[in-house]
Amino acid sequence: MSCVMTRDNLQHTNRRRWVIALAALFTIAFAVRLGLTAAFVGLDAPPDAQANPDQLDFEQIAWQVAQGNGFVLDTGDPTARRAVGAVGTMALPYTVADDSVISQSRPAA
Q1: Which end of the chain lies in a sparser environment, N or C, as judged by fewer CB atoms within 10 Å?
Q2: CA–CA separation, 57 vs 73, rounded Å?
Q3: Helix or strand or coil: residue 78?
Q4: How many Å apart are CA 79 and CA 57, to the nearest integer?
Q5: 83-93 residue pLDDT tens
């Protein structure tokens, strides 16, 4: 039994190493971001309208989507001024989490 590396085996090994390296890089970057956010902002900090006014729109629309009201502002007016992907990503935790958790961090209308 010989230990000959064929071209296919080598490509598979290189691809596997590449995927592992990317997963490790993503995990490290996420941990750094989470750590810095926890240290400087706090994980339970509400949205800051002065620092990022767009954030309030995203949060409010995501809340409305999670409640089943569609892509509307808190006033009930339909809107298309924010990206669907970001709102959809934020609406998922609002849909899954308990209302008492959401109401603590939900931005004021």
Answers
A1: N
A2: 8
A3: strand
A4: 10
A5: 889 998 888 88
Between 29 and 94, the higher pLDDT residue: 29
Query: What is residue 5's predicted lDDT score, i.e. its pLDDT?
Result: 63
Tell me the DSSP string of 25-74. HHHHHHHHHHHHHHHHT-TTPPP-TTT-HHHHHHHHHHHHHHTT--SB-T
Percentage helix, strand, coil for the chain under 3-state DSSP, each rounded to 5:
60, 0, 35
Dihedral angle over CA of 33, 37, 38, 44, nearest 10: -130
What are the pLDDT digits (tens) for 94-108? 888 755 445 555 555
The span from the CA of 62 to the CA of 102, in Å, is 11
Nearest to 63 by CA among 90, 45, 31: 90
- Amino acid at position 99, single letter: D
